[in-house]
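Support request, please re-run this one:
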Amino acid sequence: MNKKKSETRLTKEEFLESMQNRKLSNSKAIAKLTQQLHQYDQKYNMRSEVFYKLIVGTPLEDQPDFLDWAMCHRAYFRTLQSKFSLKEAIANVA
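Re-run finished. Output below.
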């Protein structure tokens, strides 16, 4: 029997552990988070930024899929912030 090679995907726990152990660089983490956000954008036909502004603080925030989406969105921006210092960000704006 031929077995199809399954795509290896990290669980959220594995992803968090990898980040804590720095097995993933910030760039790789951002790429993975961007991919996951894009999947949510496509699934719900809504940009993550819009979703996040609408969902936070509402009862729907506690739905498992929406909670995962919101956590992914927060992780994305926290990872971006950790990659770029404030000084670099200001220099790039100027």
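Residues 61 and 67 are 6 Å apart (CA to CA). The chain has a mean pLDDT of 81.
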